[in-house]
Specification:
This protein folds into two domains: about 55 residues, no CATH class; about 50 residues, no CATH class. The protein has six helices and two strands, in the order ααααββαα. β1 and β2 form a beta hairpin. The longest helix has 17 residues.
Amino acid sequence: MFDKPQINTNTMGRFGTTEVIVLFLLLLVYFLPTAITLNRKKTGTATIIVLNLFLGWTVVGWVIAFIWACSNGKQVPLITINNNQHNNEEKIEFPAPSLHNKLDSLRRLKDLLDSGALSVEEYENEKGKLLGR
């Protein structure tokens, strides 16, 4: 009376074109940090590849590997101490002030001028030093 539903077993367990394309795109995105670091020939390439391979499945691991691979790798030290063999003096170099710091210093100088704490001559002198004139 009732026929059993027939299941076509020929297509089960096979990957179709759509599944293969989706799998390929997922792998491409997964290994994007590795591709970027290999293309840029960065120092620490092996570490980024291992991080991407083993911790990339966690979103945090993938994001860290991606940011690390995209970074320029140049770090500006806050303080550099140069010891010359010929000189016993220590030279301390500070990084150049950023534009934000210069603008902030100019605002403070202007406030001091407006409050009367600085004369116009002192203000112009300090402004010239700050702007490198």
